[in-house]
Amino acid sequence: MVHIAPAWPEPEPLDPLGAPVPRYGTGSLADLLPTIATGLGMTGFATSMELAPADRACVFLIDGLGWELLRAHPEEAPFLTSLLDTSFNGSGRPLTAGFPSTTATSLASVGTGLPPGAHGLPGYTCEDPATGALMNQLRWYPWTEPHIWQPYPTVFQQADAAGIHTCQVSAPDFQHTPLTQIALSGGTFHGRLSGEERMDLAAEQLAAGDRSLVYTYYSEVDGKGHRYGVDSDAWRGQLMYVDRLAQRLAEQLPPRSALYITADHGMIDIPFDPDSRIDFDEDWELRAGVRLLGGEGRARHVYAHPGAAADVLAVWREVVGEQMWVASREEAIAAGWFGPCVDDRVRARIGDVVAAAHADMVIIATEREPRESEMVGMHGSMTPVEQLVPLLEVRT
Question: The whole model's pTM is what?
Answer without folding.
Answer: 0.96
